[in-house]
Design brief:
By secondary structure, the protein is mainly alpha-helical. The chain folds into two domains: 52-66 and 141-283, Growth Hormone, Chain: A (Up-down Bundle), CATH 1.20.1250.20; 71-124, no CATH class. The chain is built from 14 helices and three strands. The chain has a three-stranded antiparallel sheet, covered by helices on one side. Helix 4 runs antiparallel to helix 13 (255-270), helix 5 (82-91) packs antiparallel against helix 6 and helix 8 (143-169) runs antiparallel to helix 9. The chain crosses the membrane at residues 42-63, 141-161, 173-193, 199-219, 231-252, 258-276. It is a multi-pass membrane protein.
Length: 290
């Protein structure tokens, strides 16, 4: 009987001394245990997702940048002959025998032929684009699509590198590092002296855009509870970015000024890096749990 009591006492002591098993948590269950969306998430989401806006501006910029507003011929002497005057009158938009305006169709054979006949011509002042800056019409028409293709290659390279950088240094570093690239490259772009220099800069602008697009959604959704991700994912942020870019183009109509505006919003996307936390999964994988 005494041996039985001693055995039960020993079992009781062992049971009390054994630590309770610790429940393992995933990131999602951790957020669920802490509660649903709180003030942190409502502040975090717009700040963390704002870097999504500059890449949209970068993509749509080339639509504006390759726009040809048309041109005018101011050469009165060259138009003095009846044959030349009749030719111009047949293909112009409006004629007053002093200034001849042509639509912005740089592939039009008649427009290019008219341009060769005119020794004193200027682009219409409707907008200042890379086409008007470097005369990318007629024989140089292929340059603008080439620059757009170079930017696309840069974006592709940015997506590849962003994944590695995010795993190696953190998604916060990947997103805001790419935003910093957009700040610098857009400011450098306004000092371009040739379309070749500009094409190189557009490659790095595309690189920064690709880096943001790859990581920003993943980084943001890590801090959003599971049920709310579906709601956040349907937010038309790209449409909003497109709308703001359209307003910017209508207001500025100058490719250099739009680059400055893009640099400003990229800087606004970068500044929250001081406050925003690093990716929880990155910290967990690298053992930085403190």
């Amino acid at each position: 009987m005494a041996d039985q009591d001693e055995s039960e006492t020993a079992n009781l002591i062992n049971t009390e001394s054994e630590p309770e098993p610790v429940q393992a948590h995933t990131i999602d269950t951790l957020f669920k245990s802490l509660g649903e969306c709180e003030r942190f998430q409502f502040i975090f989401f717009p700040l963390a997702y704002f870097p999504f806006l500059p890449p949209a501006w970068v993509v749509y910029f080339m639509i504006f940048g390759s726009y040809n507003p048309g041109w005018k011929c101011h050469d009165k002497l060259k138009l003095n002959t009846t044959e030349t005057l009749e030719y111009f009158n047949n293909i112009n938009i409006s004629t007053n025998h002093d200034v001849y305006s042509f639509i912005g169709n740089e592939t039009s054979g008649s427009s290019c032929e008219a341009m060769q006949l005119c020794t004193n011509w200027t682009f219409n002042d409707e907008a200042s684009t890379i086409v008007t800056e470097w005369g990318l019409v007629c024989s140089e028409y292929w340059v603008a699509p080439l620059i757009f293709s170079i930017q696309t290659v840069g974006a592709l390279m940015g997506t590849f590198c962003s994944g590695y950088v995010g795993d190696r240094f953190g998604r916060k570093f990947s997103v805001h590092g790419s935003a910093a690239i957009l700040v610098v490259t857009n400011l450098i772009a306004i000092f371009s002296v040739s379309w070749k220099m500009y094409a190189v800069i557009r490659f790095f602008i595309g690189f920064g855009s690709g880096g943001i697009l790859t990581s920003v959604a993943v980084y943001t959704f890590e801090f959003i509870p599971g049920w709310w991700r579906a709601c956040v994912g349907t937010f038309p942020f790209w449409n909003l970015a497109t709308l703001t870019f359209g307003v910017c183009v209508v207001a500025l109509k100058n490719w250099r000024h739009i680059h400055i505006a893009t640099a400003i919003i990229s800087l606004m996307a970068f500044l929250p890096v001081i406050w925003l936390p690093e990716s929880l999964r990155f910290l967990t994988v690298h053992g930085k749990l403190d």
